[in-house]
Amino acid sequence: MIVIGELINGMYKDVSKAISNREADVIQHVAEEQVRAGANILDINTGPYSNNPKDDMKWLVENIQKVVSVQLSLDSTKIDVIEEGIKVAANRVVINSTSADDDKMSAVFELAKKYNAQVIGLAMDKTGIPNTKNDRLGLAAKIVAKATEYGISPADLYLDPIAMPVNVTQSQGREVMDAIRDFSVLSNPAPNTVIGLSNVSQGTKRHRSLLDRTFLVMALANGLTAAILDPLDKELMDAMIAAELILNKHIYCDSFLEAYRRK
After folding, report:
1. Tens of pLDDT, residues 72-122
2. Which residues, including other chains, have CB under 8 Å from residue 263's CB and lie 6 or more apart?
3. Do residues 173 and 211 lie in contact, with contact meaning Cβ atoms separated by under 8 Å?
4. What's the pLDDT score for residue 107?
5. Which DSSP symbol is given to 128?
């Protein structure tokens, strides 16, 4: 599974403070920790308190790249903020994200085509997040079709059915699992599937890690290929590695956790 580290986000107080004070060592430490823990991609979000998100995104990308060489996922609702990060990115980036709204998709896919970027597509539109698997599937198909118009392969898409907090919308867990399974047959080549895992336990007062890792294991069994998560949660990462072993994605040995981490 592709692990997208979620911890460089201005929503976190220490990260927001480091961005404001230009404390590159703080950001670089968070980047290095996530990569050492198994992150394949780092999500970068300047957060809601940034006074100049374009400058902040550029500064983050430049300084993170000084210590790690993994792909970056540029996370913003603003196209110009994402483009500012892309201009200084050393590697191909992931644009996080577009909804299934025509105007949003056109802007994002135009940018992705210009810079050969991959894209996270959210199965939602201006009317909100669908309640059913079939409605999610319809929006995902619309995203795949629009990407194809711009010459973007489905293999460069990450389709997100949008996991919902279990304490608010408990019935949605099953719908999301079914959507993950069905998204994979939308096209050939198949698109990637991704979830923002921490949404599952958001707002719960106890057992957040247990809820997240249980959801992740179930999603993997339904075909999930990527997740935005906290790679420093060792129990979560152990559950992911064990699930992939049982799904025959790795060769068994008694020290399979250590073997995975030495890859």
Report:
1. 999 999 999 999 999 999 999 999 999 999 999 999 999 999 999 999 999
2. none
3. no
4. 98
5. B
pTM to 2 decimal places: 0.96
Q: Are the beta carbons of 250 and 65 closer than 8 angstroms?
A: no
Those residues with Cβ within 8 angstroms of residue 11's Cβ, 6 or more apart along the chain or in another chain? 45, 47, 48
Residue 54: both structure tokens together = 């374009």
CA-wise closest residue to 118 among 88, 142, 84, 82: 82
d(CA 14, CA 142): 38
Distances (CA, A) of 216 to 15, 123, 154, 155: 26, 19, 23, 21
Distance in angstroms (rounded) separating the CA atoms of residues 137 and 130: 10
Nearest C-alpha neighbor of 68 from the set 103, 37, 47: 37
Type of residue at 235 = E
The residues, ordered by sequence, that sit 6+ positions from 125 with a Cβ below 8 Å of its Cβ are 99, 100, 101, 139
State yes or no: cis peptide before 189, omega within 30 of 0: yes
User: Which pLDDT tens digit goes with each residue over 159-199?
Assistant: 999 999 999 999 999 999 999 999 999 999 999 999 999 99
Residues 209-243 pLDDT 10s? 999 999 999 999 999 999 999 999 999 999 999 99
